[in-house]
Amino acid sequence: MRVFLLASAIFTWSVSAHAETKAIINGTVHTVTESGVLTNATVLIEDDMIVAVGNDVDVPDDATVIDAGGRPVTPGLINVFSKIGLLEVGQVNAADDYSFSGAPFSAAFDVTPGLNPESVLIPITRVDGVTRAVTIPSGRGAVFAGLGAVVHLGVTDDMVVKDKAAQYSAFGGRAADAMGGARGGLAVFMRQAFEDALHFDKNRRNFDQNRTRDYVLHHLDLEALLPVLYGEISLVVDVNRASDMRVLIAMADDYNIRMVFNSAREAWKVATDLAEANIAVIIDPSNNLPTNFDNIYATQDNARLLYEAGVKTIVATTSFNDLNNPRNVTQLAGIAVANGLPFDAALAAITRNPAEVFGIGDDFGTLEVGKEADVVVWEGDPLELVTLPTHVFIKGELMPMDNRQLRLRDRYKDLNNETPMQYR
Amino acid sequence: MRRVLLAATAMVAVWSLTADHSASAQTEMSAAGQLLASVNRDPYPSTYAPRSAPVTALVGATILDGAGGLVENGTVIMADNKVMAVGVNLSIPDGAAVVDAAGKWVTSGIIDIHSHIGIGPVPNTGASGDVNEATAPNTAQVWTEHAVWPQDPAFGRAIAGGITTQHISVGSANLFGGRTVVVKNVPARTTQGMKFPGAKQGLKMACGENPKRVYGSKGGPSTRMANFAGYRAGWYDALQYQYDWDLYDAKVQKGDPAAKPPKRDLKKETLALALSGEILVQMHCYRGDEMALVLDMAKEFGYHVSTFHHAVEGYKVADLLAEAGTCGAMWADWWGFKLESFDGIRENIALVDAAENGCAIVHSDSNVGIQRLNQEAAKAMAAGNRIGLNISKAHAWTWLSLNPAKALQLDDKTGSLEPGKMADVVMWDGDPFSVYTKAERVYIDGVLTYDRDDPEKQFLSDFEVGYAKQGDLK
Is ipTM > 0.90 here? Predict the structure, then answer.
């Protein structure tokens, strides 16, 4: 019932004629900017924007006031390795839209038409403070898996913040297996795909008249690779072995591609090279096992060592078992801190850094004037295991703290109640 | 039906005769020529014996004893591989190695009741993977211990997470997967060198989707109906097997020279021993309604389910589990990775625990998760406290320690810091319910087996030699 009322209130805000103002006062505000952490500070939200952050903020009389009581206030979090909106439940193929095969193209696969803003995963994730995500394709053996999208997790019909936000690929032992076995072949294929895309773009008329040479990819894929080659979007490459990263660094340099390395378990071994090449990495800091011969040097110190070398580091839930738990990105950031990453760097790794890398840094990722109002008030340390948000704002709207799991819990928390579960 | 009833009667009789399963009793029964006595129960015996360790005192810590107790500013003394004393202001024996544990937390060692380390090792390749004998829905004849690779690097990672005992189990592809094994998380050359002395084996069984998925197009089962038909057929076969041997034994007893022993059947033998309780039934099961049916099946055949593993819907039948004396071994928050896990909630562990006589266990089923089971317990505790269950840290530690020890029937040996028990002890650099806390020292049977500050007390598996050095970053 309370939830219903909240939802009504949100509706009222959105239709009101004048600006709706909300003030979070007495917060320990983690700005994730050079201003650092402000105590007893206010975050002022007008409609969907942050309009003031600081200690001397005038709160308008008609503002809805939330007293943080000294507790932490952070930007909304983002998890850049997710299937949110594409994955409803694992192993039920018809309910899942993140992997794709069987057509002659793969790089052109765009996840966006598959997005479902009604997914139960969305409210389950956002009540834990994750307000945005990058939702990504999984290639089934294709060298280029397709295009991911940046989404927000608000109550909405349109969750897309930025479609075609990045292209996805993989390089390493398993990726090479899918291409015939050897990395040497895979590298040739990737370079040829880039050459072909550039050639295609310069010879479109000839292509339409069947007067071009053979291409290694479908023309839709060549088209999809052009934004990568023209530096408009990143190529996120799943890669773990240090030597593979060196190969890719050279490739990125040759083609002026902005690469991001995902998983990157041995990234610490090439940290200096990564920093020099300005390549960001997405890691799960808990990965420390030699799960295959690409990961022999996996270590929980990865995050710390990358940070120390000046590599822009993003923390995300990159393991398969975490697909339904993108909310656990806070725990992973905490594990990075436990292994030496400074707290502020860990918070940046799930807010500002990913926002910048995925091209939404102007709107999201920090608490400062002019950003969209994704703001979270926490019970305590946001990276701790026993704390959760008390308030979550997405684009200025206060989210209902409700989801399917909480309703199931309430159905069953008293097994002695005589009302059958189905009526509760 | 009549035959089955007879068999059951005969079985009860035999099992009352063999109630004493000590080695001497087995030898005697062997002489009598009875199958269940003449069977060598322990053909691959544990060779593990703890090295001698100095008397050690951890002084000034916050202690979680694993049985629900908390001691502030307390001391744990270990001697002769056992816990000698736990308390405040203890007098420390002369010559003891004294460790300043001020500001630290000391707990009983963590027992992971659901591990595949050693049989699903890293590197994870087809050549190394031995988790599921997915060739038939009933492979009760296979034994986990025949595939445990003691050099799995994951053993070394697990000990850095405070794991002192693991129950390693075949996978969940099959209705009857095979026998499980309990090991101490110690460095060893052989699997026998890790086997927990005196621990019972388990029988791994599986509900629901996995057997359906694996065998649906391979002759079945393709439905949950056939899953149950398969379990029941297996149990009846075991009863018949028992009966055939009873008849033979009776003939031998009478001096019948024509008595011919039935053929030994390793599959039925495992099931017969599970029915008797000599092997503990460990069952993978997600849905509450299925767990309720399994508990009725256990009554039908007179056996006991030790633990439902995963039990993602344990909260829906927490009362039924508690009544049956069956534990739930669960994740803190895994859900939705298949349909039968779609209803997973974060309060599951706390709600299974909250039932009167409830037995909740935090398990990993993961060589990553096993490194931080303390963190999983923290999340589960927090979820329970949010709905007013008032769970203390000391109580939540029972989910990691005494409860799994009980489920494995090892609570007289380990699972809590009580004098006389194995000195399986972890010293943490802070509150183990914090994400920032790490294990600093791990003692197994009083032997310092892991020390974060001493590279020589850190595992380097054979596999890693030549890549990494002792004490390298992991």
Answer: yes
